[in-house]
Amino acid sequence: MLLDFRKLGAWKWALSAICGLMTLFLLLPILFIVALSFGSSRWLIFPPPGWTLRWYEELFADPRWIDAALTSAKIAVIVMVLSVVLGLLVSLALVRGRFRGRAVLRAFFLTPMVLPVIIVAVALYAAFLRLGLSGTLVGFVIAHLVVALPFSIITISGALETFDPAIEDAAILCGASPWEARLRVTMPCISHGLFSAAIFSFLISWDEVVLAIFMASPSLQTLPVKVWTTLRQDLTPVIAAASTLLIALTVLLMVIAALIRKGKAR
Amino acid sequence: MTTPFLHINGLRKVYGNVVATDHVELAISKGEFMTFLGPSGSGKSTTLYILAGFQDPTAGDILLQGRSLLSTPSHKRNIGMVFQRYTLFPHLSVGENVAFPLRVRRAGKDEIDRKVKKALKLVRLDGFEDRMPANMSGGQQQRVALARALVYDPPVLLMDEPLSALDKKLREEIQFEIRRIHQETGVTILYVTHDQEEALRLSDRIAIFNKGKIEQVGTGPELYANPATHFVADFIGDSAFLGGELAAIADDRATLRFADGEVLAGVPLHGTGTAGDKAELMLRPERIELAAGPGREGATLPVVVEDVTFLGNNSTVTARTGWGDALTVRLNFGHPMIGSVARGDRLHVQWQPKDAHVFVKP
Ligand SMILES: Nc1ncnc2c1ncn2[C@@H]1O[C@H](COP(=O)(O)OP(=O)(O)O)[C@@H](O)[C@H]1O
Ligand SMILES: [Mg+2]
């Protein structure tokens, strides 16, 4: 190897230190929020003078927070399902298809990833106002699907590319109809890609705030939007508690995704 | 006229401007082991894929017991196939892989158990039911694939270079198994390979493919003793080709004049030609004798020895004629000249004119 860590001498310590600092830099805000959510100070004093679960009690007692969390979960689950199903169909076409303009189509499907979210948000907002979709569940789902689908397509296409289509051909000659072969052989073989796509699609929707702010109405808002609007009115540790719960679910799903990847690599 | 069991009728397949197969015509009897032999890109797989239903032919038909297969989709053709690449279902155990064709046919549990056991026994992998494909060697995986392709008693088994990823020793071992399985089951096999030894070892008959066309069909000995074309002569066995010109033709026998003026009469002629055409003389290495001087009977040519290779049970002598064509002579172990022949020696080769073949150059 060109750069062997063990042979770097004094640089080894410098690199380790930089790595440590970077990790701290990335983790500190999260640790800070988690600490504040359990801190007893109403004014978000750090370090907290004492510890309490009061803010969590307030959070769970307030139906507006519960509503927002349920809305978030509902949207994320629908986005997850649609994103995986559509992602699978699109990937089958992109990877297996032999038609002209495949590369162009693929690039087109991935554009929402590189487009600034705010532009997507404004465009969708304008369109949804005309269509009467703004402030509706359908509007939310479509908006989040636009940003989640590219991730689904990338992960599922990746899994499909490493799967030898001759295996599917073998299943068909064994007597399985083309769709039966895809269902019983191809799908289980690319399940790691499908799971990753599901988790990332869920997370993208669950964490998303820019599109959600444009789509939200006073009666329908997601958890990140609720955090955002509450923050503007009143700085309360309940926000820290809500944020902590958001982060907890995210971390849990990331860990599951990492385990799936590791299981696949084994 | 009786209808053949399997009839490949004037098959033609065109991809864009590539003609993959052209006028492929073949009648295969029940229980026959037919091998498609030819260089890579000669249209062997294409023919097999059309049989399997993965490709539609541009023209022609496939008839199984007189009925066209073309309108039947792949999964209803009831044909078995072993692929070049490993195609076991990686998420299923060996037992479940072999059971798969029976499960999609909605067979009962007892029948599945019995047939899976029998199929694994046939490929000598009984007791491997719970093994996962990833934990098996390439040879074992191909044997499971064979069991999976035979478990539903298909009338025809297709095999597309199933052993090409294995090393030589293992390949020979499995070739032996395939022969035994063919004899035990009596299934009709269409086998694709580019390895002539494999083809000769396994097949009842061999179809030689070249550039999408079948050059000749016959048993191994027929093809070796009586190649119809220059291509077949070159592809089966190691032969030497000496360039010359047709001097005269009478009753399918040619008189050939070599570049140095030497004339050879009474050689079997393949193809049609007239005096003056360019032609080539084909010689099998084991039909050539090496001698110190010109012999009294048969044909003879002076040569210069270029190289001598010892190969265990025989030695190969490479020599060159006066006008520069190379030929090889095989000396069996114990031949008096082994040990005395050396590079640079001026010797003579001799052979019987009837053992040579003349091919007119197109
Ligand atoms: N799907 C395809 N698209 C275009 N050309 C193809 C395709 N499959 C095969 N060919 C061409 O057809 C010819 C015959 O190929 P193939 O039947 O695979 O040969 P073989 O199996 O004898 O090596 C080759 O020139 C190959 O490039
Ligand atoms: Mg091939």
Describe the structure.
- Chain B: InterPro entries: AAA+_ATPase, ABC_SmlMolc_Importer, ABC_transporter-like_ATP-bd, ABC_transporter-like_CS, Mo/tungstate-bd_C_term_dom, P-loop_NTPase, Transp-assoc_OB_typ2.
- Chain B: Residues 6-236 form the ABC transporter domain.
- Chain B: Keywords: ATP-binding, Nucleotide-binding, Transport.
- The complex is a heterodimer of chains A (266) and B (362).
- Chain A folds into two domains: 5-37; 62-265, MetI-like fold, CATH 1.10.3720.10.
- Chain A is built from twelve helices and no strands.
- By secondary structure, chain A is mainly alpha-helical.
- Chain B has eight helices and 20 strands.
- The two termini of chain B are 35 Å apart.
- Chain B is elongated.
- In chain B, strand 12 and strand 13 (263-270) form a beta hairpin.
- Chain B has helices at 44-52, 94-104, 109-122, 138-150, 168-185, 196-202, 220-225, 230-235, and strands spanning 6-15, 18-28, 33-37, 59-64, 67-68, 80-82, 156-160, 188-193, 205-210, 213-218, 240-250, 253-258, 263-270, 278-283, 289-291, 299-310, 314-321, 326-332, 346-351, 357-360.
- Chain A binds chain B through residues 164, 166-167, 169-178, 180-181, 184-185, 188-189, and chain B through 52, 54, 73-81, 83, 85, 87-91, 100-101, 104-105, 145, 148-149, 152.
- The structure holds adenosine-5'-diphosphate and magnesium ion.
- Magnesium ion (MG) binds next to helix 1 of chain B.
